[in-house]
Amino acid sequence: MAPQAQPHEEAFQAVTAAFASLGRVCLALDAEYRMRHVSPLLDELLGPGAADRYRGRPITELLGCELFGVEGPFRAALAANERREGWRAWLPDGEGGRRPTSVTAAPLRHLGGACDREARYLIVLRPADPEIGEPVGPARSTGFVARSPAMERVRRLVESLDHSDVSVLVGGESGVGKGVVAQEIHARSHRRERPFVAVNCAALPDALLESELFGHVRGAFTGALRDRTGRFELADGGTLFLDEIGDLPLHVQAKLLRVIQERAFERVGDSRTITVNVRIIAATHRDLRREVEARRFREDLLYRLRVFPLDVPPLRERREDVAPLARHLLARSAARTGRELRLSPEALRLLEAYRWPGNVRELENALEYAATVATGHTLQPEDLPSEVTGPAAEAPRVSPDVPEEDEARVASRRRDPPSRERLLAALQENRWHIGDTSRALSISRSTLWRWMRERRVARSS
């Protein structure tokens, strides 16, 4: 038997040497997922004797049950004769710690009879960067990317705020990353060790907004069973980010103006005045000057918020940012899911050619979709959503006679709410369930709340 095994061992040693030249550890598993062959290079990762110690042992002892357990994704894929590439796992280092590694697995093809017939699956391990989840280069910890000239200008403006505490109004289309810019401003300021508290003003109904911002005391209204601390108090000493400030009701705008002017307010239902030290950053996709003209936004509040205006350009005007943004988003996904993914040159060209009407948020969703359907660790064009790869992906402007600078206004009109009757009918069909209704209308919850507010639709209608 020993002479028959020798060619198999020599074959595996040749494979091992080839992978070792690339810094990879090669393993071969049998049908029971036991390590039949183990590369000596494992000793360099885990210490002397590691290869001998793990030979013949279940792969779960080395890589854990998350990937190779009975219900694990790798075991299911290998059983279906599929490969998996670039997934994150952790190797025990023998000192109670763990080392990150990238794992690729595939069914072993027996060609020419050189391989061990008992070996069914090939596993390749590559030491992974322990900071894979942290963006590097232009993508800072906040996710702020500035490679294009347009975003370089934004970055310079943000840097000019490092030693200032003025109110900032961030403008731009939905999904461009206004929240990321707000976080970057906070992260660079002297308040960075204090809280950053975000509120989406469009995501909450009018009745809850005042309580959410300023808090309430027990018994202030029906359902107020206990005291509640508002977002202003939670942000004391730090930064309060008011997203979609253009959706704030007028009566709340009046109270917000007083807080900005006097740094004081009262909780709902309380007469005690609370003082806070909060830096305010607001954001909106609306033209607030037009909102002022339409008497939907207070002019005095606009001037208080717009001390330092800062506009974030849409993604279609800064295509140089698509590649670094995609890398950052994939790195963040790797930290969350354990899969290290990259883009093929062809897939990246498609991403850079697409117009991204939904901006960075749409790019993130497209990458999440691709990561879900892809089987390898390199995303290919066929993994991308059809709207990115289809014939309309490089569509011209909204209308041939609409200038570029007016496209945002056209897009805004296209998202105007339906008639009050249609909106009421949709809500009633879904028994006033906000989540079901927003899905039926193919919009977000925050957009549905905004439509209800603009059409003055309430449960009592």
What is shown here, in short?
This protein has 461 residues and is α/β, with parallel strands linked by helices. The chain is built from 21 helices and 14 strands. The protein has helices at residues 2-21, 42-46, 50-54, 59-63, 65-68, 73-79, 149-159, 178-188, 206-214, 231-234, 250-262, 288-293, 299-305, 322-337, 345-353, 359-373, 386-389, 407-414, 420-429, 434-440, 445-454, and strands at 25-29, 35-38, 84-92, 98-107, 121-127, 168-171, 196-200, 239-243, 264-266, 273-275, 279-284, 308-311, 342-343, 378-379.
Describe this structure in words.
- This protein has 461 residues and is α/β, with parallel strands linked by helices.
- It has 4 domains: 2-127, Beta-Lactamase; 149-315, P-loop containing nucleotide triphosphate hydrolases (Rossmann fold); 318-389, Helicase, Ruva Protein, domain 3 (Orthogonal Bundle); 416-454.
- It is 40% helix and 15% strand.
- It is built from 21 helices and 14 strands.
- It has helices at residues 2-21, 42-46, 50-54, 59-63, 65-68, 73-79, 149-159, 178-188, 206-214, 231-234, 250-262, 288-293, 299-305, 322-337, 345-353, 359-373, 386-389, 407-414, 420-429, 434-440, 445-454, and strands at 25-29, 35-38, 84-92, 98-107, 121-127, 168-171, 196-200, 239-243, 264-266, 273-275, 279-284, 308-311, 342-343, 378-379.
- The chain has a 5-stranded antiparallel sheet with strand order 2-1-5-4-3. It has a 5-stranded parallel sheet with strand order 7-8-11-6-12. A two-stranded antiparallel ribbon has the order 9-10.
- α14 packs across α16 (359-373).
- The chain is elongated and about 80 Å long.
